[in-house]
Amino acid sequence: MSGTPALVLDNVRAWYGESLVLQGVDFQVLPGEAVTLLGRNGAGRTTTLRAILGLTGRRQGSIRVFGEETLGQPTYRIARHGIGYCPEERGIFASLSCEENLKLPPLFDNGSPGLSLDEIYQLFPNLAERRHSPGKALSGGEQQMLALARILRTGAKLLLLDEISEGLAPVIVDTLGEAIRALRSRGYTILLVEQNFHFAAALCDRLLFMEHGRIIETLTPVQLEDQADRVSRLLSV
Amino acid sequence: MDLFGVPITALMAQLMIGLVNGCFYAVLSLGLAVIFGMLHVINFTHGAMFMLGALLSWAGLHYFNINYWVMLVMAPLIVGAFGILLERLFLRRVYHLDYLYGLLLTLGLTLIIEGAVRSAYGVSGRPYGPPPIAGVTNLGFLMLPNYRLWVIVASLLVCGATWFMIERTRLGAYLRAATENASLVEAFGVNVPMMVSLTFGFGVALAAFAGVLAAPVMQVSALTGQTLIVIVFAVVVIGGMGSILGTVVTGIGLGLVEALTKVYYPEASSMVMFLVMVLVLMVRPNGLFGGGE
Ligand SMILES: Nc1ncnc2c1ncn2[C@@H]1O[C@H](COP(=O)(O)OP(=O)(O)OP(=O)(O)O)[C@@H](O)[C@H]1O
Ligand SMILES: [Mg+2]
């Protein structure tokens, strides 16, 4: 693939207060690619996503989003390069209704149209039924769908998705998997953080393994199958 | 006609005064609650901002002959801009720290503001002169000065407009969302730091607006804010941080309670609020309208 990478991390180090969590992270994601970050609990995957958006403490190195260096920028500016973020805790606003949550993120004026409300409701019919319910009344699965759905309207082209399959019933996980496939076919670039590597392997082009705040291994889904033993060792607690 | 030994006209007159005071409490505590929701700072300068609003309106009239209606718009704008300056220079540095730091910082700023005004103007109240709206309206049971009627109408309008902005507009949705999770709203591309500045500016502008309204009916001095801020804190604690409507209702309700106490047991009128506060907190620790946080 040619052109500028959608995302480049170059020797990224990030701190929470005094503790150094990311100890030099390097990787790239090309436009249209889907890449997964795997690792044990506490490996630094969530921190990687947060560091991209400037939500950690101090950061060093280089983070380029669609070719632009973002390290010195405030969070809202970084986001406006076209990033959609779905946080680990989902972050549904309890006091806003389902549809208010859906419409909350402002549209980016970067010329790339997001999905329309109708298209989003086609992708997630459950949300259409619940559109007037307050955010705090939604089930875990509905909240997860909403957290993903609301970043699709904005014109974001690079999606950062943190453990979207975690703790959900298989049928919901399937719906989310279908949605990811649909988004890929529309050209979205996706960086997934996952615990569930079966879910991830079926959706992405490459899997990166993190440990102690570094990438220690890169595999393709095919390699992952061949090396199942090693992989479970890399991920076992 | 008597009610528990008090002539009904006297009672009504007191209640009317209570309603006017309650309107001041409502506008002030609304600003305080909006600021707290967004910045998580207990803004001690609120009383001083009220005083500055009143002082500006007085100074505008006496030094530059600028009339009340102009100052009703100008003073909140000036105080709001001053608030934004304070937020950018000082408050911004304490958000990530404990509540206590915000409280101490704003207390310090209050002492500086009040000290400066005191050394320039002394502590005695400055009479504003005749209120900008003359005349009285005969309500049958009571002769109500038209200016007080205006205070009630203006306060309710401002509270209503604030409610509309927060509950019914897009900016308000950002504000409500940022109250829950500011960094996520910023991660969606919303300029949250600017929203925070504007919220603080807006909150203190509300205080200044109340100050301009109060100037012709209260003798405002450098220290007026001090007594008021304690009452307004009580209103916010009693009402809870949950809702705008709750804050407004509580403010007006407490004004009335205070007035009734003045009629039936004047000795207790300055402490009745705190009695109510203790009772409410015993039954509902999050306040009357507070959510369960
Ligand atoms: N806000 C924080 N302050 C201080 N340390 C933190 C903070 N958040 C995370 N950490 C630490 O940073 C390290 C990496 O955490 P991170 O959340 O990135 O892990 P993760 O790979 O997402 O794992 P998981 O989500 O499974 O727990 C952990 O050691 C964690 O304790
Ligand atoms: Mg995580």
Q: Would you mind describing this structure in some detail?
A:
The complex is a heterodimer of chains A (237) and B (293). Chain A has 237 residues and is α/β, with parallel strands linked by helices. Chain A has a single domain, classed as P-loop containing nucleotide triphosphate hydrolases (Rossmann fold). Chain A contains ten helices and ten strands. Chain A has helices spanning 45-52, 75-79, 98-103, 117-123, 125-129, 140-149, 170-185, 197-201, 221-226, 228-235; strands at 7-16, 19-29, 34-39, 59-65, 68-69, 83-86, 158-162, 189-193, 206-211, 214-219. In chain A, the strands form two sheets. Chain A has a six-stranded mixed sheet with strand order 6-7-8-3-9-10. A four-stranded antiparallel sheet of chain A has the order 2-1-4-5, with helices on one face. Chain A is globular and about 45 Å long. The longest helix of chain B has 32 residues, at 8-39. With 293 residues, chain B is mostly helical. Chain B starts with a strand and ends in a 10-residue tail after the last helix. Chain B has one domain: ABC transporter involved in vitamin B12 uptake, BtuC. In chain B, a hairpin with a 4-residue loop joins strand 3 and strand 4 (143-145). Helix content of chain B is 71%, strand content 3%. The mean pLDDT of chain B is 88. In chain B, the strands form two sheets. A two-stranded antiparallel ribbon of chain B has the order 1-2. Chain B has a two-stranded antiparallel ribbon with strand order 3-4. In chain B, helix 2 (46-64) crosses helix 7 (192-214) and helix 5 packs antiparallel against helix 7. The A-B interface holds A 53, 55, 74-76, 79-80, 83, 85, 87, 91, 93-96, 100, 103-106, 108, 151, 154 and B 173-174, 176-177, 179-181, 183-193. The structure holds adenosine-5'-triphosphate and magnesium ion. Residues 16, 19, 21, 39, 41-47, 88 of chain A line the site of adenosine-5'-triphosphate (ATP).
